[in-house]
Amino acid sequence: MTAIAYLGTGLLGSGFVEAALGRGDSVTVWNRTREKAEALAALGATVADTPANAVRGAERVHLVLKDDEVVEEIVAALRPGLGANAIICDHTTTQPALTAERAQRLNAQGVHYLHCPVFIGPAAARLAQGIIMASGPEALFAQVKPALEQQAQKVVYWGERSDLAAAYKLMGNAFIIGLGALVSDVFTLAAGSDVSPADSLKLLEFFNPGTMLQNRGKKMSEGDFAASFELTMARKDLRLMLETAGARPLAALPSIAARMDEVIAQGHGAEDFGVIARDAVTAARVP
Question: What digits encode the pLDDT tens for the residues 271-283?
């Protein structure tokens, strides 16, 4: 039986705890709102009064917190009870530069810290599904890899650069949030055309934007803006979309139109609409 601790038992943290208890781990939990932690006691978790008490005797400490500020606060609070060989697996979504600084500082101070953000929802956490990413000292990752593989369906190690998992987590969430915003705008266009949201999704029965995303994304990343859908024509279609939406609120399309206008004004209207990424791609290529 492995002794572990979970600090942060909101929806996701609770899901992880339930799965760990189901695997037979000995789990101590702490949450700022104690009631959320106490709900797990009926399943076999031990509830601690403080972060330091929660981590005493734990081989692994899992953090599922709000942001960088809270991570710093809780790590400082737990350190008096942290064992010399315990490893902190921080699942919190955090800012890459702050993550790198924190990882370097803590590991230099003898605190074994590994950033391990996830693409997992509460329901998936209970079923040990989803993805855990990690970056940081390879020796630490090797020690926790078997446990992480029990915690998720897939584990991806990005190497020793401590900010990379945080960066890829934000990029992944940009896909999730950005695509969600575009779905919202599709529903708005549907409303402007007297089509139900459910019927608008019928497009996905034969039109796969995921394939386009991979193919066009690869060309964009390589700086290949040879036109297959000219920017000026794409901007014309954006105009039609905005006209169809009318006064209805839109989440993403107005910002995309504004970016297109900027790049057209720079003289790139005859190139592929993927040229809106030219500044990001050019910056990445500068040595």
Answer: 999 999 999 998 7
